[in-house]
């Protein structure tokens, strides 16, 4: 156990040096405030290998600064909670990386409280997990820094009169109720959504019957693309 | 136009001979009552080629007996309507191949009426398209006859008291209300569902928060698999 901790510490030192290098070479402009835990998610998700039992925690192999992680081919895992009122499609009210080693839904509950001031009991009772999406992004100017992301999605139907999310920890500036048509316009032609949100909202519009096979000729192509396995670098234990 | 019809007729003759051959060699045991239209769905769905405008109908290149189609590598397209009451997950009340060249949702409405006696107005008003799934199956005994299928899915929430589907055209024997737990048991351990229904019900249970990333360790692997592009043989126009 001590030996293992020493190994993790040694790896962390290397990753810190790597982050310094990226900064010195102006590949990244700053350190992120979060550190990202590297686990063996690659083998867990897409290989044919046996999984650990549900009770067993994932082993953290090392931690790396979040800004440096994509340059190492590390899959970023995030959770999104999409809140909507019937007849409307709301932008998601909270999202965040899977920072800690708690269950994914526990992470949703925690972040919904921190970022949007939503009562944990409300989320526990009403949020429904609906799937997961994958995306690979890169810097638009030169195609570098390909980043592989996996987003786990929850929907929560809310009452327009009583549900009032508010920026709690300052990470979100404001919340806005959008119609499904506004969201469809944004994913098709707009520039207000970042890539992860285009992905998540497109999936929402597909799952809720706004984008359909009869009004979108690329329907099945889009659905295949947002669920596609990507390159995942496997960790081979020594 | 006449020349094109002659070409289609000539192809149909060849496919009829091919079906005869499969019968003579005992590869298939009988002719299906349906003929399957071959369109250029392959290039439409998964290649980078330009699509036709929404108004333009797909060209039928030939028709082939439904039993013989998978042996030609032809993608089978079907639609499924899943009816459920809140708090329960119902097996789907109607499903059928995309036989004719009408819109997919029109096909759902038509089949829901024919197979389950559901009022077209009810389906038009309440059914929501939720996505599409892909599956490749083969004969379990020898692995032959790999069949590629694409299923377009609609959900319809119904009122348990007033919604009474009934076998209308005799294709369905009976309808049964199942709990989500029963359905989960069936897809995990049961033998009552055919492969297409295991696919469709698994997706339903994922989309409705019954199977979640925290209770199923293969969660993201399953989601990637049921949406994966498969081999599609492209038709290259002469």
UniProtKB/TrEMBL annotation, chains A, B:
Protein name, entry field: Nudix hydrolase domain-containing protein
Organism expressing this protein natively: Fragilariopsis cylindrus CCMP1102
Domain of life: Eukaryota
